[in-house]
UniProtKB/TrEMBL annotation:
One of its GO terms (molecular function) is ATP hydrolysis activity. Coiled coil: none annotated. Residues 4-238 form the ABC transporter domain. It comes from Acidianus manzaensis. SUPFAM superfamilies: MOP-like (SSF50331), P-loop containing nucleoside triphosphate hydrolases (SSF52540). This is ABC transporter ATP-binding protein. Keywords: ATP-binding, Cell membrane, Membrane, Nucleotide-binding, Translocase, Transport. InterPro entries: AAA+_ATPase (IPR003593), ABC_transporter-like_ATP-bd (IPR003439), ABC_transporter-like_CS (IPR017871), ABC_transpr_MalK/UgpC-like (IPR047641), Mo/tungstate-bd_C_term_dom (IPR008995), NA-bd_OB-fold (IPR012340), OB_MalK-like (IPR040582), P-loop_NTPase (IPR027417). The keyword Nucleotidyltransferase does not apply. The lineage of its organism: Archaea, Thermoproteota, Thermoprotei, Sulfolobales, Sulfolobaceae.
Length: 363
């Protein structure tokens, strides 16, 4: 069931007579129970999007539907949507109990009901031992759980989260991410989660929505987007290190780029013409070492479980990943081949995946 729908959303900010079109006809449809991560570079309108869903900000054009009903003129308090902010927005002068209880007090709930709800969510988030503490006596991870508890206490079935883990250090962040995932499974609420951290997005999301230039550029299963990006921009934005994109030309059954020659993948064969200029994309991990293209090593980065080897192909730097700690050094000559099934081909001008482009034409 479609639970949140954004239809042709436009948002233009005007500051000192300068107009910034942040959202430009954005469409997004979210099913009940999904954990959708809106991912995109800084300043692309992610927070703006959340604020429009919550009603804190009004779109200039387009419509917002929640639970199948249009809510354009419904004020935030009546949208039954909770929000968790990056800075937690916890009141420093209230203890944890009162912070969590606050939304229920605003709703004039009875003392008994407030008590039982606060205890229920604080147990769930394992902060029931901390209810008497002031926020200044909490760690970052605990503070973040208080913020989530306060969002859950009203029982809203749509929760919006704006980079809620951004202030946590790397280790706590991984734990918090896992906890959030489990919590989502347990509660089956619909969550829209904003981040610019793609590791977070890929590991957390049931669906990723990639925002860029005011619209959703790709939306779907995180691994499907990773493996089969619909454009060169998506391929080079998702993944650390990102997808390698190189320009080339079709010559018979081969893609030729500088002095390398790669057989055309079967899936793309009928979509390509001789002499056609294209871009090819391949993930750094989808290569085999030992034979094939001969290159010199430009730089080596050992990360522990794998090694990133930078090589120069006709002036373009390509990243290759070898499992474990590779025994190569700068200046070494190595050979590699690209896994045929994992090559993606993009239009030279539009940057669109040629298979997607063909599907669009036929639909
Ligand atoms: N009230 C405002 N007036 C003018 N410009 C604004 C206003 N709010 C946001 N912007 C601009 O709109 C753009 C989008 O902002 P937004 O906060 O939605 O982006 P974001 O993707 O959430 O960024 P980040 O990842 O850095 O938090 C930015 O360029 C920002 O400077």
């Amino acid at each position: 069931m479609e639970y949140i729908r954004l239809e042709d959303i436009w948002k233009i900010y005007t500051q000192k007579k300068k107009k910034t079109e942040v959202l430009r006809g954005l469409n997004l449809s979210i099913e009940k129970g999904e954990l959708v991560v809106v991912l995109g570079p800084s300043g692309e309108g992610k927070t703006t999007l959340l604020r429009i869903i919550s009603g804190l900000l009004k779109q200039d054009k387009g419509h917002v539907y929640l639970r199948g009903e249009i809510v354009d003129n419904v004020p935030p308090k009546d949208r039954n949507v909770s929000m968790v902010f990056q800075n937690y927005a916890i009141y420093p002068f209230m203890n944890v109990y009162d912070n969590i209880a606050f939304p229920l007090k605003l709703m004039h709930k009875s003392k008994e009901e407030i008590r039982s709800k606060v205890l229920e969510v604080s147990k769930m988030l394992r902060i029931d031992e901390l209810l008497d503490r002031k926020p200044s006596q909490l760690s970052g991870g605990q503070m973040q759980r208080v913020a989530i508890a306060r969002a859950l206490v009203k029982g809203d079935d749509i929760i919006l989260m704006d980079e809620p883990l951004a202030n946590l250090d790397a280790q706590v962040r991984v734990i918090a991410r896992d906890e959030l995932k489990q919590l989502h499974r347990k509660l089956n609420t619909t969550i829209v989660y904003v981040t610019h951290d793609q590791t977070e997005a890929l590991s957390l999301a049931t669906k990723v929505a990639l925002i860029h230039q005011g619209v959703i550029q790709a939306y779907g299963d995180p691994m499907e987007i990773y493996n089969n990006p619909n454009s060169d921009w998506v391929g080079s934005f998702i993944g650390t290190p990102p997808m390698n994109i190189i320009e080339g030309k079709i010559e018979g059954d081969y893609i030729v780029s500088n002095d390398i020659k790669i057989p055309v993948p079967i899936t793309y064969k009928k979509l390509l013409k001789d002499n056609q200029k294209i871009k090819i994309g391949f993930r750094p991990e989808n290569v085999k070492f030992g034979e094939g293209i001969e290159v010199y090593v430009d730089m080596v980065e050992r990360v522990g479980p794998y090694t990133v080897i930078y090589v120069d192909i006709g002036g373009q730097i390509i990243r290759l990943i070898e499992k474990g700690q590779a025994k190569v050094e700068k200046g070494d000559k190595i050979k590699f081949s690209i896994d045929q099934d994992q090559i993606v081909i993009f239009d030279i001008n539009s940057g669109k995946n040629l298979i997607e482009e063909e599907n669009d034409k036929n639909s």
